[in-house]
Amino acid sequence: MHRPPSFSREPGTPGTLTAVPHADQSPSTQQDAPAKRPGTPRPDRVRPTPLAELATRLGTESPGAGEVTGITHDSRAVRPGDLYAALPGARFHGADFAAQAAGLGAAAVLTDPSGAERAAVTGLPVLVTEDPRGRMGELAAEIYGHPGRDLLQIGITGTSGKTTTAYLVEAGLKSADGPTTREEGRDGGTPGRGPGELSQKGGGGRRVGLIGTVEMRIGDERVKSERTTPEATDLQALFAVMRERGVASVAMEVSSHALVLGRVDGCVFDIAVFNNLSPEHMEFHSDMEDYYRAKAQLFTPRRSRFGVINLDDEYGRRLAEEATVPVVTFSAAGLPDADWRAEDVLIGPMDSTFTVVGPKEQRISAKAPLAGPFNVANTLAAIVTLAEAGFDPQRAADGIAAVPGVPGRLERVDVGQPYLAVVDYAHKTDAVESVLRALRKVTEGRLHIVLGCGGDRDETKRGPMGAAAARLADTAVLTSDNPRSEDPLAILTTMLAGAAGVPAEERGDVLVEPDRAAAIAAAVARARPGDTVLVAGKGHEQGQDIAGVVRPFDDRQVLRAAIEAHPMERANRHENSQG
């Protein structure tokens, strides 16, 4: 019996980078991982900062003698010599935990007037300011010696593609030559319009940093991420560690939450990148205008020196006009008025090739290492960013083309089955539609999707996501994502209503299975040679939050187990063992 070919590059081998280990795995699986301490990694050497200097910066009265060597907003992560930032919260005030911070060796407390009295009970010096969260970032930068000034900092924002673009920029930074000065001239970016003199900040082929949704990387060391963009105290500590360990440049995701809540305060990016904007986080933002305004903050002199903006996106076109820093634009659709554009695009089943055309009609051969037109845009964004930073664009493009994959982004799961199985982080309507359309182009047979919506998050996208899955897939298995405190069936009811709104003649089969593992198994059971199974929504995540309890759950592992357990795959393995 002839067996259809596998969709993997090499049968039996993983198709992408490995994400950070599970919580129950040994730390030894991380390269050169240091002994675990609470909180984000800290630099080993910090010049003590007198409290009087910090008080002067705050414009407040000095609490007396003393000095600090670190800062944290988490009382559990306090180290001896720290300034503990006791912030007001929705349920508790950080000052309520000042005694814990003092017990761990805090040297002083930063808080607001409402927390001052409680903090003073500890006997520690207290710095008081009306908005401690708003001043925390600049203090962290001061305490750690403004480490970002010594790094080439690239910040990436947008609704979709931040993680992928960050990984691609990281790969380009590792492979490219160091930046040249604009006075020396170069084949890449636009003279006089970019971030200026970067030859003393960063360099290709050296140690590179990465900060984002999946993980943080300091050279080869990997650290689990708790959120897309770390809190300001952690971010400045990370920059200081990177500088101390010889990292020259860092690519990082910048969320709208980070911009609104001040997590990137004290940081001015050399280059800010805008990918796109579509409805998301509407539980946090009042409307799309509020969401756009949050993102647009990154393209002001307070936050960045230079911008790279996607002209194919309607909000990108607006931002290109409204940004108050110099910008260049790019277009994967080949718009002639873009500074950089993609031409001769060939979309393949697992990657795409195209030519990058620059402002001086430079032509650069490029490959997007992940499938789909949206990854042409992500790849183009990365190449343009590196070119405008002064790197050789062809070498950067070659390094990006060699990326084996991005964790949880169209990540293939292959055990030799005769159909394509992928896991993707798509968890918003536009992203679900884009990935389904991309996979439809490379699927000979039927397309099956497993999809849920997170609880305690934007409710407005649930119906449209259910509708997108039902309209664009042959089978839509609606299931749980991270229900959190919500009833999973209530979430699924809204998703099912969206699916039911699709006319019957345009709708695929729709199944409802609240148990995510069972839903994945149901999709696998329907797969035949030439089909595609997509498990969407959680991507790289390694846990599932149900009623406040996070249980181990990795879509990639569960999908692999379901494929291996299915009778078709067992029969194939038996056939192969018989020769």
TrEMBL record:
<keyword id="KW-0067">ATP-binding</keyword>
<dbReference type="InterPro" id="IPR035911">
    <property type="entry name" value="MurE/MurF_N"/>
</dbReference>
<feature type="binding site">
    <location>
        <position position="75"/>
    </location>
    <ligand>
        <name>UDP-N-acetyl-alpha-D-muramoyl-L-alanyl-D-glutamate</name>
    </ligand>
</feature>
<keyword id="KW-0133">Cell shape</keyword>
<feature type="modified residue" description="N6-carboxylysine">
    <location>
        <position position="295"/>
    </location>
</feature>
<comment type="pathway">
    <text>Cell wall biogenesis; peptidoglycan biosynthesis.</text>
</comment>
<dbReference type="Pfam" id="PF02875">
    <property type="entry name" value="Mur_ligase_C"/>
</dbReference>
<feature type="region of interest" description="Disordered">
    <location>
        <begin position="1"/>
        <end position="74"/>
    </location>
</feature>
<dbReference type="InterPro" id="IPR013221">
    <property type="entry name" value="Mur_ligase_cen"/>
</dbReference>
<feature type="domain" description="Mur ligase C-terminal">
    <location>
        <begin position="408"/>
        <end position="539"/>
    </location>
</feature>
<feature type="binding site">
    <location>
        <position position="255"/>
    </location>
    <ligand>
        <name>UDP-N-acetyl-alpha-D-muramoyl-L-alanyl-D-glutamate</name>
    </ligand>
</feature>
<dbReference type="InterPro" id="IPR036565">
    <property type="entry name" value="Mur-like_cat_sf"/>
</dbReference>
<comment type="similarity">
    <text>Belongs to the MurCDEF family. MurE subfamily.</text>
</comment>
<comment type="function">
    <text>Catalyzes the addition of meso-diaminopimelic acid to the nucleotide precursor UDP-N-acetylmuramoyl-L-alanyl-D-glutamate (UMAG) in the biosynthesis of bacterial cell-wall peptidoglycan.</text>
</comment>
<keyword id="KW-0436">Ligase</keyword>
<feature type="domain" description="Mur ligase central">
    <location>
        <begin position="156"/>
        <end position="385"/>
    </location>
</feature>
<dbReference type="Pfam" id="PF08245">
    <property type="entry name" value="Mur_ligase_M"/>
</dbReference>
<keyword id="KW-0547">Nucleotide-binding</keyword>
<feature type="compositionally biased region" description="Gly residues">
    <location>
        <begin position="188"/>
        <end position="207"/>
    </location>
</feature>
<feature type="binding site">
    <location>
        <begin position="228"/>
        <end position="229"/>
    </location>
    <ligand>
        <name>UDP-N-acetyl-alpha-D-muramoyl-L-alanyl-D-glutamate</name>
    </ligand>
</feature>
<feature type="domain" description="Mur ligase N-terminal catalytic">
    <location>
        <begin position="67"/>
        <end position="142"/>
    </location>
</feature>
<feature type="binding site">
    <location>
        <position position="263"/>
    </location>
    <ligand>
        <name>UDP-N-acetyl-alpha-D-muramoyl-L-alanyl-D-glutamate</name>
    </ligand>
</feature>
<feature type="binding site">
    <location>
        <begin position="481"/>
        <end position="484"/>
    </location>
    <ligand>
        <name>meso-2,6-diaminopimelate</name>
    </ligand>
</feature>
<keyword id="KW-0460">Magnesium</keyword>
<feature type="binding site">
    <location>
        <position position="537"/>
    </location>
    <ligand>
        <name>meso-2,6-diaminopimelate</name>
    </ligand>
</feature>
<feature type="binding site">
    <location>
        <position position="457"/>
    </location>
    <ligand>
        <name>meso-2,6-diaminopimelate</name>
    </ligand>
</feature>
<keyword id="KW-0573">Peptidoglycan synthesis</keyword>
<feature type="binding site">
    <location>
        <position position="541"/>
    </location>
    <ligand>
        <name>meso-2,6-diaminopimelate</name>
    </ligand>
</feature>
<feature type="binding site">
    <location>
        <begin position="158"/>
        <end position="164"/>
    </location>
    <ligand>
        <name>ATP</name>
    </ligand>
</feature>
<keyword id="KW-0131">Cell cycle</keyword>
<dbReference type="InterPro" id="IPR005761">
    <property type="entry name" value="UDP-N-AcMur-Glu-dNH2Pim_ligase"/>
</dbReference>
<dbReference type="InterPro" id="IPR036615">
    <property type="entry name" value="Mur_ligase_C_dom_sf"/>
</dbReference>
<protein>
    <recommendedName>
        <fullName>UDP-N-acetylmuramoyl-L-alanyl-D-glutamate--2,6-diaminopimelate ligase</fullName>
        <ecNumber>6.3.2.13</ecNumber>
    </recommendedName>
</protein>
<keyword id="KW-0963">Cytoplasm</keyword>
<feature type="region of interest" description="Disordered">
    <location>
        <begin position="174"/>
        <end position="207"/>
    </location>
</feature>
<dbReference type="Pfam" id="PF01225">
    <property type="entry name" value="Mur_ligase"/>
</dbReference>
<dbReference type="GO" id="GO:0016874">
    <property type="term" value="F:ligase activity"/>
</dbReference>
<keyword id="KW-0132">Cell division</keyword>
<dbReference type="InterPro" id="IPR004101">
    <property type="entry name" value="Mur_ligase_C"/>
</dbReference>
<keyword id="KW-0961">Cell wall biogenesis/degradation</keyword>
<feature type="short sequence motif" description="Meso-diaminopimelate recognition motif">
    <location>
        <begin position="481"/>
        <end position="484"/>
    </location>
</feature>
<dbReference type="InterPro" id="IPR000713">
    <property type="entry name" value="Mur_ligase_N"/>
</dbReference>
